[in-house]
Design goal:
Layout: E1 2-8, H1 11-19, H2 25-31, H3 43-57, H4 65-77, E2 81-87, H5 91-104, E3 110-113, H6 116-119, H7 129-151, E4 156-158, H8 167-176, E5 180-184, E6 191-194, H9 204-208, H10 210-218, H11 223-229, H12 231-239, E7 243-246, E8 249-252, H13 254-266, E9 267-272, H14 274-281, H15 284-294, H16 297-301, E10 306-309, E11 312-316, E12 323-329, E13 332-339, H17 342-347, H18 355-361, E14 363-368
Length: 372
């Protein structure tokens, strides 16, 4: 099986209107240029269009760029395809994705996933450039990376449809994650394949300017002020194309997100003292937990794992003795105590700790898969 990431445009409706002019025009005008948040208000128009377009498209291969390219890819791959549809933050793109999923659900060799709660990309639209930069492009890249991490590097990027503004980001992601790119050539049935071209990423910039990159990942409201404090560092990051500036606000650029996520997939950064680091490396269970769970932000934020105990914030691995005592300072993680023994961990709950001393004595650690 191969996963295929496909962004969804509106060629399905354009092709329908060319073939059957006037039938859905009045209904389509009601939903055109409407954001996904208006979906429930437009259900009557949506349902009419869905039924009409579905009947017209059923059994055909050339009704949209998405269907045409995926059908051709299936013929060439001769294996089960798992197609992940990604829609823009519009009613039309979401509706197209739902119809395409319904059409493909009848085929045996194609599995199509589309969940409106995670696959309609918030902020991904072309009316508001600031919103596109601040949220849309970032949310799109984050979602694609999650799919790659879930499905593996054997994923195919299908760039035949959707907004042209995201094609450069998909191309860079495909290269960064060693994935193949395909697209259907204009009006033909010829599927163009761009083979994997793995690129070497220089991670030294992320090591050298880690604090500034973490700040950009969170977002900096008054960038000019902050840049004044770290002028050389942010100037270098701007030079590398890693900073996206919109007004007074700055954040990691889409390219910055792609490469930083690649960096984080290989290296987990935290701070601790030499003694704590030595202890961690002698604890196989803690080392495993850091690699498999703790390094993942969502896992750390899981309320069942992230527990305040006494004076401390503790990562509790569950029904065992494994505990990681840590705190966050400006989004940097400091680990100051680890246990593989539940009784010892329990005794430490009321022990006071000196946060400032821990910060002074801690050193940045780059924890990679080689530590497993």
């Amino acid at each position: 099986m191969r996963a295929v990431i496909t962004s969804v445009g509106v060629s399905l409706f354009q092709n329908y209107s060319s073939d059957k002019p006037g039938v859905i025009n009045s209904y389509y005008k009601r939903i055109e240029n409407k954001r996904n948040q208006d979906w429930n208000k437009l259900k009557d128009s949506i349902q009419f269009i869905r039924e009409e377009v579905y009947r017209w498209a059923k059994g055909k291969e050339d009704v949209s760029a998405e269907i045409k390219s995926i059908t051709q890819l299936l013929k060439e791959e001769k294996t089960l395809l798992h197609v992940c549809l990604l829609a823009s933050d519009t009613v039309t793109s979401r509706l197209a994705a739902e119809i395409i999923k319904d059409l493909f659900d009848e085929q045996k060799d194609i599995e199509v996933s589309f969940n409106e709660n995670q696959d309609v990309i918030s902020g991904l639209q072309v009316e508001d450039h600031t919103e596109f930069c601040r949220t849309g492009a970032h949310n799109f890249i984050t979602r694609v990376i999650r799919i790659i991490n879930d499905k593996g590097v054997n994923t195919i990027f299908n760039i035949s449809s959707g907004y042209k503004s995201i094609v450069p980001f998909m191309t860079i992601m495909a290269n960064a994650y060693d994935c193949e790119i395909v697209y259907i050539f204009e009006e033909s049935n010829c599927l163009i394949r761009i083979p994997k071209v793995p690129i070497q990423i220089d991670f030294s910039i992320f090591r050298q300017f880690y604090h500034q990159i973490v700040m950009l990942e969170v977002g900096i409201e008054n960038y000019n002020k902050t840049k004044g404090e770290f002028f050389q560092e942010f100037s270098k990051l701007e030079e590398k194309g890693l900073v996206e500036i919109t007004g007074a606000y700055a954040q990691l650029s889409p390219i910055g997100i792609i490469f930083y996520e690649r960096y984080k997939a290989q290296i987990f950064v935290f701070y601790c003292t030499d003694d704590v680091y030595k202890t961690i490396k002698s604890q196989p269970n803690i080392s495993r937990i850091i690699n498999e769970k703790f390094r993942n932000q969502k896992e750390r934020q899981n309320q069942s794992k992230r527990e305040p105990k006494g004076l401390h914030l503790v990562y509790d691995d569950g029904d065992n003795g494994n505990r990681i005592y840590y705190f966050l300072e400006q989004d940097v993680i400091y680990i100051y105590k680890t246990f593989e023994n539940e009784e010892a961990a329990r005794k430490y709950i009321q022990v006071k700790f000196d946060k400032e001393k821990i910060k002074r004595e801690s050193t940045k650690r780059e924890w990679g898969l080689s530590h497993v």
